[in-house]
Amino acid sequence: MNSVTMTRKTWLKAAVASLTLAATTGVMAQQPTELRVGLIPSEDAQAMMRASQQVMDQLAAKTGLKIKPFVANDYNGVIEAMRSGKIDVAYFGPFSYVLASQLANAEAFAIPVAKKSGKSSYNSIIISKKDKGLGTVPQLQGKTFAFVDPSSASGHLFPKAGLKGEGIDTDRYFSRVIFSGSHDASIMAVANGKVDAAAVADPIFQTAVAKGHVKAEDFQVIWRSKDIPESPMAWRKNLDEATKKKVAAALAEIKGLPWGDRGELNGFAPTNDQAYDVVRQTAKALNLDLGKMK
Fold first, then answer.
1. Please, are residues 257 and 58 in contact by the beta-carbon 8 Å criterion?
2. Is the predicted pLDDT of residue 16 greater than 50, yes or no?
3. Which fold has domain 34-118+230-286?
4. What pLDDT digit, counting tens, does each position of 227-248 carry?
5. How far apart (Å, rounded) are the C-alpha atoms in residues 82 and 264?
6. Of 111, 198, 114, 195, nearest in space to 152 by CA
7. In terms of CATH, what superfamily is 121-228?
8. 22-62: pLDDT as tens digits
9. Closest Cα partner for 257 from 75, 101, 57, 90?
10. Which residues belong to any copy of the Solute-binding protein family 3/N-terminal domain (predicted)?
11. pTM score > 0.70 for this model?
12. CA–CA separation, 80 and 100 (whole Å)
């Protein structure tokens, strides 16, 4: 073998090695160094940040990614942030997730498991002040009422559908209906006499009581919904697979920390898009066109 042949082989090997290194470096460069996480505003933005901080810190430690939390002013703000690619993962409500799956390429992958209850579902309740003397749904006719947000499962969709099943058109039944913007705001609207009754998530009401914001004995639960699937964590479908695996594994291991109104966590269990078909069916019962909702 002559020296020219050797030189060509050596050059080819060096070229292949160089291309391989460049390709590998390119792949490594594409791996994200941060994860942008959206949070639904079940409380005000600052309260949500504080309530989720320990979980976000653990997520950063377990994934090695810098976590950038984001709380919008309303549910649709989080959906829009995912649609426009400004966030990678979000904690949605059940209905806001259904919207996000259709409008923002979101895919549910995990749900928080409360250590105390171990449940993967919760309920919507309608509450009133005891001193108002409003203990039944028929007594609410002509009264003022608060929903949380048009895209809230427990604060709008399920109670509205449930009452419709009882022959009640909430647009006509109450003298005035408002959207408060958050479950906490609805609870305080009832507590302060701004509205006669409100539909909120049972776990959030229980948390408000536990924190001393309101007294349980001052309220009564007038109505309770059927079980609602737990609020999911969802990622952009086009998030890279390595990051998906890393995030899902990290969330599954996060235990013993507080997570918003769900209390102490016992990790995040796997879920999928099909688990929210009951939410889609409820929306259909209300003749809601998901494609037109924003």
1. yes
2. no
3. D-Maltodextrin-Binding Protein; domain 2 (3.40.190)
4. 999 999 999 999 999 999 999 9
5. 27
6. 198
7. Periplasmic binding protein-like II (3.40.190.10)
8. 344 343 435 679 999 998 866 566 766 777 889 999 999 99
9. 57
10. 34-263
11. yes
12. 8
